[in-house]
Amino acid sequence: MTSTPRPRPLVGAVVAVALAALLYAMTATSTGDTAAGSGLAVVAIGVGLAAAKHHWARITVTVLLGVQLLYWLPLPLSGEWEFTDNPVVYVLVAALLSVAGVVLLFGPSSNAYFAARRAERAGRVR
């Protein structure tokens, strides 16, 4: 049985998610808040890579990126950092990559891919 090829938008989503998670981890390191940010960022990288094959993983990565976004987005608005400081730039770029990654994860070609994967797995089980 042949496996369904991954669509390019899904591959792009996985790359965007991994880069966003990396930037969140860099933000945590730059601000000295390594305990809060790095743990979820590392998990998001792993789950983002797993999202290329499993439907549950794209839901999990969406939740994890949402948590990261809600945690870090107030940083640029706090006034504590200048707009050109590294942590602010990391957060803003990571936020854009997070949104782009999630949109691509749930795009039509990605939905079709996950439906085909489910059908393949259902065929193997029976």
What are the key terms here?
single chain, 126 residues, mainly alpha, elongated
Q: Could you walk me through the main structural features you see in this protein, from its secondary elements to its overall organization?
A:
- The protein is mostly helical and 126 residues long.
- It has one domain (8-125).
- It is 80% helix and 0% strand.
- It contains 6 helices and no strands.
- It has helices at 8-31, 34-50, 55-72, 74-77, 86-105, 108-125.
- Helix 1 (8-31) packs parallel to helix 3, helix 2 packs antiparallel against helix 3 (55-72) and helix 3 (55-72) runs antiparallel to helix 5 (86-105).
- It is elongated and about 55 Å long.
- The two termini are 14 Å apart.
Low-confidence stretches: none
Number of helices: 6
Rg over CA atoms, rounded to whole Å, is: 16 Å
Overall mean pLDDT stands at 82
The count of strands amounts to 0
Class of secondary structure makeup: mainly alpha
Transmembrane segments: 35-52, 59-77, 89-116
Keywords: Membrane, Transmembrane, Transmembrane helix
Organism: Actinophytocola gossypii
Protein name: Histidine kinase
